[in-house]
Write a structure and sequence with these properties.
Number of domains of chain B: 2
Shape of chain A: globular
CATH topology of the largest domain in chain B: Rossmann fold
CATH class of the largest domain in chain A: Alpha Beta
Radius of gyration of chain A: 19 Å
Strand content of chain B: 5-15%
Oligomer: heterodimer
Number of strands of chain A: 14
Order of helices and strands of chain B: HHHEHHHEHEEEHEHEHHHHH
Largest sheet of chain B: 5 strands, parallel
CATH class of the largest domain in chain B: Alpha Beta
Strand order of the largest sheet of chain B: 1-2-3-7-6
Helix content of chain B: 25-40%
CATH architecture of the largest domain in chain A: 3-Layer(aba) Sandwich
Distance between the termini of chain B: 79 Å
Structural class of chain B: alpha/beta
Structural class of chain A: alpha/beta
Number of domains of chain A: 2
Helix content of chain A: 25-40%
Number of helices of chain A: 12
Largest sheet of chain A: 7 strands, mixed
CATH superfamily of the largest domain in chain A: Thiamin diphosphate (ThDP)-binding fold, Pyr/PP domains
Order of helices and strands of chain A: EHEHEHEHHEHEHEEEEHEEHEHEHH
Radius of gyration of chain B: 25 Å
Largest interface: A-B, 50 and 52 residues
Strand content of chain A: 15-25%
Chain lengths: ~350, ~425
């Protein structure tokens, strides 16, 4: 085991897959010589050459389109979109092409492309460097959607994504790159070195797509969450002394409904937390599915905690961010109901 | 009350609308044979005049003249003619079948047959093609069986797309023909990516893609030219300028005052404007571009100047927006007639042989239809199990697709109800059963 932060774990995932499969290539803005604005591809061009790790023009639509063509020609491209906020110029290529090529060609063509993209706020990024658009991709048939919350999962999920035969949109909560974050910006930053999930094997391993993890078993209520909100949820429940079962989805598509339903049937209470805006957010899908699967076990209405339905405001970042207080209020409401 | 006021906005107009006399004076058509032919590895600057000129080989007396005259054996020209006639007859039949209600939709390539056929013949079978929706000639020239193509049109049990795509959106993996998208221009930068991969793997295969004058307006066109130049991708990018994007004249894609080919040099790649109805000229420029790509000198943009004789699709009525006789006045003629006349001038063909060829191709198409309908149509005969709609969304079926598949089976009355009950229904039933 090696101590790694999330950036190092992602870097290691790409390194390991590139070592094993010469068809894996990396492309994106600033990923080559410079190693990426968040350093995720640092050293990889030096190690694997500029034919396998190269910079792209600032054209996300072109990056994804050419990655699709490369995949049709047998490569396994990993394309970085520098911020999830910049992914929209590629939306047509992702939604109308990448997601559907296997389907529309009756299974004759496939495009195993992984799109890595940093998401989420809490880094003073304003409304163009803080978005969490996972629901926009979860709604598209044919895409797998992943969001890790720690270095161990980040590496295992990224390897699984790159080696997967289907296209994957891989969201990286950038607030977690350097350490777990419990939602309190005034506390000193904590690194991954003191966290068990900062222990990352140096070699090849996979965390399977579509399998959630119970990061804290508990009896009183279930919190379904992913990404940065995993730590905020844990802290909020702890502050109230509630024995919460916290589920980190890890994969949004495929969704591990089985794990969620089993937990909610046990606890009878559920809070869903994500950083993305609430209205038609992924929480709505989770909530509806729980209602369908667990209705007779529910002791209280399901609560959703999310970012407000506004763009992410620069000056009011922490009033926007669904922090511990907002989650605690939802937990209390859930616990107090009938 | 009129709201009209003076405006400075330039809104392009085609030269003629219904009732007007067709007018193609806007087309710049230089003399046959006047375009110079630089070496295939010439620097960009030595190719720039090709973007505003027009490569033409066949003259009014049906002779091949000038430096672009390709070396093609008469037998290959006869083969090219056959592919074009077969494409033409296949189109005629497809259009009729739609009018008879046998298929839902069709798109003809009438008048544009030379683009697909000559290009498919000029490229190697190992070169990858990313077609648009009016490139059926590529599939026919590469040898996809007409039965397979017709089964696709019928969305039947043998449809390569498993009933998922509109008619004409073929693909053929073994023939290196990529799946056609209904979204315009998306294939253009994908072809560049395929070519980049060929270069990464150090293979000398070339990619080629096609789109129309109208869809050059999409951002994907820009991405394709940009990436093709940046990575010097071995790709041939074709703009089939057939003057019309449904009812929208090519000027709305910015075709005035400069050619679409001239976009190439702006991005750093050669642009060649070619008479798209001249089989020999199309063949020659494609060969030039392929040699250039294989030599590592990068991409070429080819603008094929042609005319969309047919409606945009079976859902379109061009008499509403252009003169009815416009096609007859098209100054570059018909590609099949021109190659036929050339072969006759060479002493390698005759009107009798041509009439026999048309008949033979028509029968081939008719036979294909007879065979294809045995595999079903949208309304009759064998069809795929509707449950197959859940296949190929992902490589393996995900849990929620498995649930939906079960639900559909229940709707179709295929399984006993108990097996396909929702989790909720099962629980309700269990709770009700408890004392």
């Amino acid at each position: 085991m090696t101590q790694m932060n999330m950036i190092q774990a992602l870097n290691s995932a790409m390194d390991v897959t590139m070592e094993r499969d010469s068809n894996v290539v990396l492309m994106g803005e600033d990923v080559g010589y410079f190693g990426g604005v968040f350093r995720a591809t640092e050293g990889l061009q030096r190690k694997y050459g500029e034919h396998r790790v190269f910079d792209s023009p600032i054209a996300e639509g072109g990056i994804v389109a050419t990655a699709i063509g490369m995949a049709v020609n047998g490569l396994r491209p990993v394309a970085e979109v520098q911020f999830a906020d910049y992914i929209y110029p590629a939306y047509d290529q992702i939604v109308s092409e990448l997601a559907r090529i296997r389907y529309r060609s009756g299974g004759d063509f496939a495009t195993p492309v992984t799109i890595r993209t940093p998401c989420g706020g809490g880094i003073r990024g304003g409304q163009t460097h803080s978005q969490s658009p996972e629901a926009l991709f979860a709604h598209i048939c044919g895409l797998k959607v992943v969001m890790p919350s720690n270095p161990y999962d980040a590496k295992g999920l990224l390897i699984a994504s790159i080696e997967d035969e289907d296209p994957v949109v891989f969201f990286e909560p950038k607030r977690l790159y350097n350490g777990p974050f419990d939602g309190d910006p005034n506390k000193p930053a904590v690194g991954w070195s003191s966290h068990p999930k900062g222990d990352v094997p140096a070699g090849h391993y996979k965390v399977p797509l579509g399998v959630a993890e119970i990061v804290r078993p508990g009896k009183q209520l279930t919190i379904v969450t992913y990404g940065t909100m995993v730590y905020v949820s844990l802290a909020a429940a702890a502050s109230l002394g509630i024995d919460a079962e916290v589920i980190d989805l890890r994969s949004i598509v495929p969704l591990d409904l089985e794990t969620i339903a089993a937990s909610v049937k046990k606890t009878g209470r559920c809070v869903i937390a994500h950083e993305a805006t609430r209205f038609a957010g992924f929480g709505a899908e989770i909530s509806a599915s729980i209602q369908e699967e667990c209705f007779w076990h529910l002791e209280a209405p399901i609560q959703r905690v999310a970012g407000w339905d506004t763009p992410y405001p620069h000056a009011f970042e922490w009033e926007y961010f669904p922090g511990q207080a907002r989650i605690a209020a939802a937990i209390k409401a859930t616990m107090e109901a009938s | 009350m009129s709201t009209a006021r003076r405006s400075r906005l330039h809104v392009p107009r085609p030269p003629a609308r219904p009732g007007d006399t067709p007018d193609f004076s806007y087309l710049r058509i230089p003399p046959v044979g006047s375009a110079e032919r630089p070496p295939h590895d010439a620097p960009l600057a030595d190719t720039e005049r090709l973007a505003g000129g027009m490569v033409r080989v066949l003259d009014d007396k049906h002779r091949a003249v000038g430096p672009w005259t390709p070396q093609i054996a008469p037998a290959d020209l006869q083969l090219g003619l056959r592919h074009m006639v077969l494409t033409h007859q296949f189109d005629e039949r497809g259009m009729r079948a739609q009018r008879q209600g046998r298929i839902t939709f069709y798109m003809k390539s009438t008048g544009e047959e030379a683009v697909s056929v000559a290009q498919a013949m000029a490229l190697r079978p190992t070169d990858m093609m990313f077609p648009g929706y009016r490139n059926q000639g590529l599939f026919i020239t590469r040898g996809l069986s007409l039965v397979d193509m017709t089964c696709q049109l019928l969305s039947n049990s043998r449809d390569m797309c498993k009933g998922r795509q509109l008619p004409v959106m073929y693909h053929w993996r073994e023939g290196k023909l990529f799946s056609i998208s209904g979204n315009l221009a998306t294939q253009f930068p994908q072809a560049v990516g395929w070519a980049m991969a060929a270069a990464i793997k150090n293979e000398d295969h070339v990619a080629a893609s096609w789109l129309g004058d109208g869809s050059t307006a999409e951002g994907d066109f820009h991405y394709a030219l940009l990436f093709a130049n940046v990575y010097r991708a071995p790709v041939i990018l074709n703009v089939v300028n057939n003057q019309w994007a449904i009812s929208t004249f090519q000027a709305f894609a910015g075709g005035e005052p400069r050619s679409f080919a001239s976009r190439g040099p702006g991005y750093g790649i050669p642009g060649i404007r070619v008479d798209g109805n001249d089989f020999l000229a199309v063949y020659a420029v494609t060969q030039w571009a392929a040699e250039r790509a294989r030599a590592g000198a990068g991409a070429t943009l080819i603008e094929h100047v042609t005319y969309r004789v047919s409606p945009h699709s079976t859902s379109d009525d061009p008499s509403r927006y252009r003169p009815k006789n416009e096609a007859e006045r098209w100054p570059l003629g018909d590609p099949i007639e021109r190659l036929k006349s050339h072969l006759i001038a060479l002493g390698e063909w005759s009107e009798e042989r041509h009439a026999a060829l048309v008949k033979e191709c028509d029968e081939e198409v008719a036979n294909a239809w007879r065979e294809a309908v045995k595999h079903g149509t949208l309304t009759d005969g064998p069809r795929l199990d509707p449950e197959t709609m859940f296949d190929d969304v992902f490589k393996d079926v995900t849990p929620n697709l498995a649930r939906q598949r079960q639900q559909l089976a229940l709707e179709l009355g295929k399984h006993p109800a108990e097996e396909t009950k929702s989790a909720l229904q099962r629980e309700i039933d269990m709770e009700r059963a408890e004392p």
